[in-house]
């Protein structure tokens, strides 16, 4: 499958006989260990490098940004303008469009890693990370291609992100369904579904965009909309909706900005209720702040819904051999089901810490902007629910904090070794 690069690192224990794995050895890392070589891991490594602090990135796949490279569909573009998505210290190339493609973003990340000399340890799946109270350091155990390694470090930075593992809901009758069923993490293009009746479960940005892609490849998609959803135009008044929102929030309270966004959205998109897309009671920005639920930025899907090329369905109740039954009693026959049901953090499966991260959802317990730092040299980057903009903020704060400790220890050692021999 297209995401084998990710699985190559993740499922090493399945692919290799454990008899071939060498005995564990320990490696001292003078700077921080960063878990994850996605945009978050790269950003914090670059910020540390700029300050003269070395670091080591551990990555379970065999490439950087494995989610972007191996688990995203071909037509994906950044949903926000590039100026809100660049990593610290390096802007996007000027010739890139306002909304860079997936391929352009990956090229940017590869150039970023090269410019800052970031060379992750690939195929290194972190099995566990635990703070050793007696030793006063973190012990990070990894399973590699042919050996287990334990890394010892003073600082541990969790950069695996909010989207580490696909969420696959338990749907009644899914084992009876004879058609194709895939998560969007393995969906690439609607070409494979040409002429087929496809049920897309989930009405976030991915679900909406997959439906549009299916339409463009002459498939017949239906979209399951179980909950309320805010759909906004990607641009308003000649500016990006996100950029305009950020500017307005400098001058107006969030409720007034939400009211403005909804008024303009109704003028540009019309009333979405009759399309089966009921808006939540809370405004889009308030809802984002409270729940992390991102509004959908329309790139053409609504027009297809209006023409009937995309059918909107209520909540999915169960699947049978080739039929989907919905909560309103209706049913339909389908050849395939695509789960646009999102992702989740995997931090609780390997990090032995109950203070910074919640065991329930794998996210920092403290809300933004206070969730980036824990105890005993533990940090998190990329868990703000604010995309790459939040990642950049975290990366800068973490590098500044570690740099202070790094310089203080260097000064202490310098002072220690400068003492006369007789006083030691």
Write the layout of secondary structure elements.
Layout: H1 4-10, H2 12-15, E1 22-28, E2 33-35, H3 39-50, E3 56-58, H4 66-70, H5 102-115, E4 125-132, E5 137-143, E6 147-153, E7 156-158, E8 165-166, E9 180-183, E10 197-201, H6 205-216, E11 220-224, E12 231-233, E13 235-236, E14 239-240, H7 241-249, H8 254-269, H9 284-291, E15 296-298, H10 301-306, E16 311-313, E17 316-319, E18 323-326, E19 331-333, E20 336-339, E21 343-344, E22 351-352, E23 378-380, H11 387-417
Parallel strand pairs: 1-6, 2-3, 2-7, 4-22, 7-23, 9-20, 10-11, 10-20, 11-16, 12-15
Antiparallel strand pairs: 4-5, 5-6, 8-21, 13-14, 17-18, 18-19
Descriptors:
424 residues; alpha/beta; FAD/NAD(P)-binding domain; 2 domains; 5-stranded mixed sheet; 5-stranded parallel sheet; 11 helices; 29% helix; disordered N terminus; FAD
Structure description:
It is a single chain. Strands 1-6-5-4-22 form a 5-stranded mixed sheet, with no helix packed on it. It has a 5-stranded parallel sheet with strand order 9-20-10-11-16, covered by helices on one side. The chain has a 4-stranded parallel sheet with strand order 3-2-7-23, covered by helices on one side. 29% of the residues lie in helices and 21% in strands. Helix 7 (241-249) runs antiparallel to helix 8. The model is unreliable at 1-18 (pLDDT under 50). It has helices at 4-10, 12-15, 39-50, 66-70, 102-115, 205-216, 241-249, 254-269, 284-291, 301-306, 387-417, and strands at residues 22-28, 33-35, 56-58, 125-132, 137-143, 147-153, 156-158, 165-166, 180-183, 197-201, 220-224, 231-233, 235-236, 239-240, 296-298, 311-313, 316-319, 323-326, 331-333, 336-339, 343-344, 351-352, 378-380. The chain is of the alpha/beta class and 424 residues long. Strand 17 (316-319) and strand 18 form a beta hairpin. The longest helix is centred in the last third of the chain and has 31 residues, at 387-417. The chain has 2 domains: 4-164 and 343-417, FAD/NAD(P)-binding domain (3-Layer(bba) Sandwich), CATH 3.50.50; 168-339, FAD/NAD(P)-binding domain, CATH 3.50.50.60. It is globular, with a radius of gyration of 24 Å. The relative contact order is 0.15. The N and C termini lie far apart (62 Å).
């Amino acid at each position: 499958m297209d995401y084998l690069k990710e699985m190559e690192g993740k499922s090493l224990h399945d692919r290799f006989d454990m008899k071939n794995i060498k005995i564990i050895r320990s490696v001292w890392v003078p700077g921080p260990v960063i878990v994850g070589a996605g945009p978050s891991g790269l950003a914090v490594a670059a910020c540390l490098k700029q300050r003269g602090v070395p670091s080591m990135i551990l990555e379970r796949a065999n490439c950087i940004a494995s989610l972007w490279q191996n688990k995203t569909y071909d037509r994906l573009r950044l949903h926000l303008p590039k100026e809100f998505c660049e990593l610290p210290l390096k802007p996007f190339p000027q010739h890139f469009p306002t909304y860079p493609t997936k391929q352009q973003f990956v090229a940017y990340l590869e150039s970023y890693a090269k410019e800052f000399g970031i060379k992750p340890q690939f195929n290194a799946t972190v099995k566990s990370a635990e703070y050793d109270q007696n030793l006063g350091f973190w012990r990070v155990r990894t399973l590699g291609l042919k050996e287990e390694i334990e890394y010892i470090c003073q600082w541990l930075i969790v950069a695996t992100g909010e989207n580490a593992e696909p969420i696959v809901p338990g749907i009644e009758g899914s084992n009876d369904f004879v058609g194709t069923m895939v998560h969007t993490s393995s969906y690439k293009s609607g070409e494979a579904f040409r002429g087929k009746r496809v049920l897309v479960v989930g009405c976030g940005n991915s679900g909406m965009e997959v439906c549009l892609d299916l339409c463009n490849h002459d498939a017949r998609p239906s979209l399951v909309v179980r909950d309320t959803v805010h759909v906004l135009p990607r641009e308003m008044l000649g500016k990006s909706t996100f950029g305009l929102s950020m500017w307005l929030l400098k001058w107006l309270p969030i409720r007034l900005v939400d009211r403005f966004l909804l008024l303009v959205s109704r003028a540009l998109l019309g009333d979405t209720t009759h399309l089966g897309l009921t808006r939540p009671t809370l405004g889009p920005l308030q809802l984002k702040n409270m729940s992390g639920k991102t509004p959908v930025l329309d790139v053409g899907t609504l027009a297809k819904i209006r023409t009937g090329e995309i059918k909107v369905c209520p909540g999915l109740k169960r699947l049978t051999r080739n039929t989907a039954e919905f909560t309103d009693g209706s049913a339909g026959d389908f050849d395939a089901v695509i789960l646009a049901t999102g992702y989740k953090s995997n931090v609780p499966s390997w990090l032995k810490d109950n203070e910074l991260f919640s065991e329930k959802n794998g996210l920092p317990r403290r809300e933004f902007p206070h969730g980036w730092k824990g105890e005993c040299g533990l940090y998190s980057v990329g868990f703000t629910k604010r995309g790459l903009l939040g990642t950049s903020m975290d990366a800068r704060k973490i590098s500044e904090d570690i740099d202070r400790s790094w310089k203080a220890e260097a000064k202490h050692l310098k002072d220690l070794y400068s003492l006369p021999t007789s006083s030691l």
